[in-house]
Design a protein that fits this description.
Arc Repressor Mutant, subunit A, four-stranded antiparallel beta sheet, 2 domains, Jelly Rolls
Length: about 220
């Protein structure tokens, strides 16, 4: 999902940033210096629990805007840690410039509202997945979420998720061990629900919906 009017305006006031893999972009509890519109690559927002283990809260990729809570002034600081999962190209901008754009450009404001609505819908898929009791449904809903947010439709009707996802990242994203996640991914691959090549996954949505026993979301994904 693209937001061309908003991106055009942000390019005028911001600058292009290259964030290398593992670069920390914002720290939990600290005031961010910039907002970002991601052009390519991926960023994880994560928390660290009392045992010192990392849990990925969300993954941001192409045409994502972050950190939204700080940009919207609903939080005075970054709520989570933000770090680059891969090399990332992004437009970097100040919060003041962002607010000015939304105030002066109805088209940009409309696109930002659509971005927030799409993100909210996607997070409902994510919440549904995290509430599942079985690892296979947790992983399956994670793919549903990723396809809805970032999926690129191919000529054969499948959807490519343009993120490089290791088993460890997927495991941290759904709160499961890497071993269980690897076993579950093998089941999905063996059942032709997903295909994997060089850490990039392709999803057959019809098979995924049948696997989940769920088709009520079908109209949401073009």
């Amino acid at each position: 999902m693209m937001y061309p009017k908003l991106l055009e305006q942000l390019r005028h006031v911001g600058d292009q940033a290259l964030l290398r893999k593992k670069t920390h972009i914002a720290y939990q509890g600290e005031v961010p210096r910039y907002g970002y519109y991601i052009l390519d690559g991926s960023v994880k927002a994560y928390a660290i629990n009392s045992d010192g283990n990392e849990t990925i809260v969300d993954i941001f990729s192409r045409h994502s805007i972050m950190p939204v809570a700080w940009l919207n002034r609903t939080a005075p600081t970054a709520i989570f840690y933000y770090a680059a999962l891969t090399d990332v190209r992004a437009v970097r901008f100040s919060r003041q410039d962002f607010e000015k754009i939304l105030k002066e450009s109805p088209a940009a404001q409309q696109e930002y509202t659509r971005y927030l609505a799409n993100a909210q819908t996607a997070l409902m898929f994510r919440a549904t997945g995290l509430s599942q009791s079985s690892a296979d449904h947790k992983v399956s809903y994670a793919f549903y979420y990723l396809v809805y947010r970032y999926g690129v439709k191919r000529s054969d009707g499948t959807y490519m998720v343009p993120l490089k996802l290791t088993h460890e990242v997927i495991a941290n994203f759904i709160g499961q061990s890497r071993e269980n996640t690897t076993k579950t991914l093998k089941v999905l691959v063996d059942n032709n629900v997903v295909a994997q090549e060089a850490k990039v996954y392709t999803v057959d949505m019809s098979r995924l919906e049948r696997y989940l026993g769920e088709d009520s979301f079908r109209q949401l994904i073009d």
